[in-house]
Design a protein that fits this description.
three-stranded parallel beta sheet, 96 residues, 5 strands, globular, Rossmann fold, alpha/beta
Length: 96
């Protein structure tokens, strides 16, 4: 399952949907009013590193790759960053 979110670039979303359409093990969604059930069932998670998302991932004790938003500013990363000291998270900080 790939949950892109409402701000994912349309051209990239279209490419993901084409790829998913050719596979039986992949689905895409652009919006989900409540993500907790999806996170709870996930084996692994790749997510942007906003505070709420990181806290939800931690609450379910899932293996996760967190990619923080760095533009227009890294403010959403300041709180979750301290979580790396005690959680099983991997962080990939983009350069642009």
């Amino acid at each position: 399952m790939i949950l892109t979110g409402p701000y994912f670039p349309e051209s990239d979303r279209a490419e993901l949907e084409r790829t998913a359409g050719r596979r039986t093990d992949m689905r895409t969604l652009s919006f989900l009013p409540e993500t907790a059930p999806l996170l709870e069932r996930a084996d692994q998670i790749v997510a942007m590193g906003g505070y709420n998302t990181v806290m939800e991932v931690l609450s379910y004790r899932k293996r996760a790759l967190i990619v923080p938003r760095v533009s227009p500013g890294p403010s959403s990363w300041s709180g979750p960053r301290s979580s790396l000291n005690w959680a099983t998270l991997t962080c990939c900080i983009p350069t642009s």
